[in-house]
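hey m, so remember when u said the tokens were messed up on ur end? i reran from scratch. heres the input so u can diff it against urs
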Amino acid sequence: MSLRLVCDTNVLVSAFMFGGKPRVIFNAVLENKFELVTSMILLEELEGVLSGPKLKQPYEFTQVILKGLMDVALLVRPSQSFAVIKTDPDDNRVLECAVEGQAEVIISGDKDLLILKKFFGIPIMSPTSFIEIHMQ
């Protein structure tokens, strides 16, 4: 069975827009080396970031990305809510998704998440750390 992971929105945005290590991880998901777990609220956040004022991606592009993610990811509906991260409460949605989806790793570039190191026993690591540990 493949390792279950949750990728924070910043990692997915990087994978689709900029490449690099986040894209390497996402390509491994597409090759069924890892199982991606997500939730509707995380997909909605991704849609907002892609189509928002910074990236201004066309509607069609964001819809293709979202459809692709829904095709490859395990979609969960978190039954618990957490308020662990006070500085950016939206980051708690990542934790909720990971716990509900029984993820084994959370991948993020967000300092508010990375500083936790673990949540409910789930390691939280940067794309670089994830690749060093799980893809060598």
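this time it looks ok to me. The chain has one domain: 3-134. if urs says something different then somethings off w ur setup not the seq
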